[in-house]
Amino acid sequence: MQASPYGTSVKGFRDGAVPRFIRTDVLLALASVALIGCSIYTIASATSGDIPGDPNFFVYRQAAYAGVGIVLMLILSRVDYSRFREWKAGLYVAMIGLIVMTFALGSVARGSRRAIDLGFISLQTSEVGKVLLVLTLSAFVVDRMRRLGERETTSRVMLLALVPAMLVIAQPDLGSGLVYLAIVTAVLFVAGTKWTHFAGLGALAAVALAVVLVAAPAAGVELLKPYQMDRLTAFVNPTENPAGQGYQQAQSLVAIGAGGKTGRGEQATQTKLDFLPEHHTDFIFSVVGEEFGFMGTALVLSLFALLIWRCLRILTMSKNLYGSLIAGGVTAMLMFQVFVNVGMTVGIMPITGVTLPLMSYGGSSVIVTFMALGLLQSIHAQARETALAKGPNPALI
Amino acid sequence: MYLDSDNRRALTPQLALRVAVIGGIALVAFGLVFFRLWYLQVLSGDKYRNVAQANSVRPIKVQAPRGEIVDREGRVLVKNRTGLAVKVTPEKLPADSGARSALYARLGRVLDMSPARIEKSVEDQLKALPFAPATVKSDVPNELIFYLLENKEDFPGVEPEQVFLRRYPHGEVGAHLFGYVSEVSQEQLESELFRGVALGDRVGQAGIELEYDRFLRGENGASRIRVDALGNLQRTLRRREPKQGRQLKLAVDLDVQRVGQEQLGGAAGAFAVMDVRNGEVLALGSSPSYDPNVFSKVIRQSDYERLTSEENGQQLLNRATQGDYPTGSTFKLITATAALEGGLITPDTVQYDGGSLQVGGVNFTNAGGVVNGALALRQALSVSSDVFFYRLGVAADSAGDGLLIQQWAKKLGLGRPTGIDLPNDMPGRVPTPAWRNKLFEQGLTDRAWSVGDNVNLSVGQGDLSANPLQLAVAYAAIANGGKVVQPRLGKRIEDASGRPLQELEAPRARTLKIDPANRQAILDGLRAAASEPGGTSTDVFAGFEIPIAGKTGTAEKTNGIDQSWYAALAPYPNPQYVVVATFEQGGFGAETAAPAARAIIAELFGTKAGDLSAGGSQD
Q1: What's the average model confidence in pLDDT over B127-142?
Q2: Chain B: nearest CA to A336, how far in angstroms?
């Protein structure tokens, strides 16, 4: 077998010696497909009245995105992820380039410039950036594994992540920026960065937060857009402005609460009469809550729990560090989005504009999430391959 | 394969720990979210379901039409018509104040109103009730409504709404009785009188509309509609039909009322027609009158000022209950009652009328200086001898506490509100020594009380002030044997088709003890005044089919033009009705007020008034 400096060649696991179902993490695949199924089912019900004369407008589109996403996931699952380690510099430049391009070419939607219109899809570069960031950061960390204990390593990796994060926050897309920070933290954490470094980073973050939220506004410098400040303060004091940002969260709480144990189905007035804003994107979890009740929310949360469990399992299974770091980054990306989004809908997190992976309507988000899961399947497949090559382990089959 | 194993990493304890930390974070986070969902959905589900319902279900008030007001024969006096009001819905108004001002400017051009006025009125209403639609204009022609609807994009938040407005088919006839209706005020909402009324409801603000509001106002209907987040109607969930208010039957006779107002003919004055037995008011009018239809919409300040200005004769003033007049010789009935009941004279006590009487250095004379010679009460009333009553005034001033006439005037209903079922009925004034002396002490008048004041009072002059309805009550009391009735306009509450629901019982009358012989003597005197040769109104009632008893009055006023009065009881000898008429600038009572009374009585009994050769002998 031809050895490559970065890992096994693609040939290694393509030779068909092992049945494909063993190479695939079936539970992970089932969880992801079940979630996108829930998404389409919920969107069908929530948006049937949104576009007059076209009740399935969002359904067909979400199904198409799911199709594209699943195909890309299958392709990626059979690609050797270690290739991406070779291409890290190119991928990083591409990521920064895409995000910067958005400022020039992007279409403005609700006051922010986040997407490049490609005709068939409006490409949210910050979404694509998530998966690219996972791949490139992991690669950089693997390269500097020997000097992981140095402060310089941690600083450099942080800097690599902060550049795209700040650019994305400037779009402005605070939510994705925070996801980037979650990814870099997770990659460093999994790699084994010292606890003291994390303590230092935590202190720096606290200082930065204080500057952004308190000191800078007091000095008259606007680092966050007013609406972003509104969202954060509305979370702290939701009744202060029932018509503003707090309104969305209040309506979301009402929707979820009104769903009760089994949901309101056709009587879901919060969703169907537009009291719930963004009901197919940011607040789709609230729709699940209202229409299907605790049964629905528990099901969706369980699927996410399953997803994250499988991600962590792949992290531990990975045949090499690069795979573990990718798995760590993807896990952090998913976990962060799930908790921030669901937390927002149930009123325990501020509104940050983070989508719910695989559930929220949106091509970029769905496709990128499937691609990330494709990477995990690839890690899983190669790990299996390697283990089987060392000798079958009946316990694993 | 060994190269592969280079890559292959065992699960180091460090990695295991870190994965465990991530797993722990996930576990805690999932736990938190699950707990929160359990709390929201399972424990508080009902609460949030109610909030969601309240969000999307909106109660809509359906205005109930007011009950109609009919006369004693069931003829409609006040009815409803539907109008279209222009309202603005607050949540659909442009949020930007510049855009709002532009909207008001456009609306102002269409509705012919100043944008500033629209803005102020709307903002005031929204301040009082932030989420209810605010009325811009109450009664807008259909063409303008169509225009607004066709150009909906230019008028965001502007919507028509059907409203019930009052219509007065008989114009000026009875205008002072009905009052008007308009949207309930914030202070009214807090009062017990308007319990059950909601903001935006139209309630009676004056007159009968106010007095009987609780019967006339209907029960609003309610629709429950489902709306979306923008307030657009989705569907009607439930509808409770509005219930029209009760119909109010008045004791008023439309024909008598109309004749009375025709007799006044726009001259300042008033009249009252009442059933002496129970106080039912058959007609009560004031002149000049006005067309109450101007009040059916929003009441404009300019209208209000025009109708209350002195130059226009204070059209809104109801002179029949709020007039403030000396009554002239019609007061002699009261002086006579006081003198007889107080034992100053008997019906047959003769006094000498030499044409004038010197009291305290002042010479009080008969009108026109007539000398009537020796006469007793009946004749004194018939020819309206002033000197006869001057003497009673002097005698009363020195008898007992000197308040004999005042006390009887009070007993017979002067100096206090009649208690008629109209708001703002005025007490007038019966002058007493205490009253004048107090004014004098305060420096508000040039002299203290003297016997001359009592002399003036005895013939209804001086500081006395009363209104026609009070006088009617006093005459009725003598006619009915001493019952001081409380005048009533309302007779019966009926349903919309006229079936009786509740008789409006007249309050118990106060009963005075008056010697029937004394009473009869007075009535005889009044009868003689209208029928015997030399009687002050004999000429007016010559050839009139209905036998009546009546007293003229001519009140001297500071402006030099005498006020004319006539008080009549008909038919004689068992009077059923009292009719009082007064003209502020009518001169002798027999010249204007008596013919008016004759025409009213003719209408009451359905006979021809005939041509009048107006003009009595004297007062």
Answers
A1: 75
A2: 9
Torsion of CA B35, B41, B42, B45, to 10 degrees: 140
Give the tokens for residue A85. 């380690």
DSSP B429: B
Cα B179 from Cα B211, distance rounded (Å): 9
* Amino acid at the residue A369: T
Determine phi and psi for B450, rounding to 5 degrees.
-140, 170
Give the tens place of pLDDT for each residue, A311-369: 999 999 998 999 999 999 999 999 999 999 999 999 888 888 899 999 999 899 999 99
Cβ contact (<8 Å) for A257 and B47? yes
What are the tens digits of pLDDT across the range A63-94? 999 999 999 999 999 999 999 999 999 999 99
Could B51 and A254 be called an inter-chain contact, meaning their C-beta atoms sit closer than 8 Å? yes
Alpha-carbon distances, residue B444 vs B180, B449, B464 (angstroms): 38, 13, 17
Could you report how far apart the first and last alpha carbons of chain B are, in Å?
143
CA-based nearest residue in chain B for residue A275: B229
Q: Are A323 and A366 in contact (CB under 8 A)?
A: no
Q: Does the beta-carbon distance from A389 to B4 stay under 8 Å?
A: yes
According to the model, what pLDDT value does residue A12 have?
44
Of A7, A258, A261, the CB nearest to B52: A258
Rounded to an integer, what distance in angstroms lies between the CA atom of residue B224 and that of residue B240? 9
- Model pTM score: 0.63
Nearest CB partner across the interface for B55, out of A270, A315, A331: A270
Q: Does B33 touch chain A (CB under 8 A)?
A: yes
Q: Mark yes or no for CB contact B1/A390 under 8 Å.
A: yes
User: Nearest Cβ partner of A274 from B1, B41, B228?
Assistant: B228
Give me the mean pLDDT over the B540-565 stretch: 88
Residue with tokens 């219109």: A117
Distance CA B466, CA B104 (A): 50
Q: Using the 8-state DSSP alphabet, how is residue B49 labeled?
A: H
Token code pair at residue A388:
């089987």
Mark yes or no for CB contact A301/B33 under 8 Å.
yes
| DSSP assignments along B535-566, one per residue | -TTTTTTTT-SS--EEEEEEE--TTSPPEEEE
CA dihedral B320, B322, B324, B325 (to 10 degrees): 10
Substitution target from B39, B40, B91 for chain A, most A beta carbons within 10 A: B40
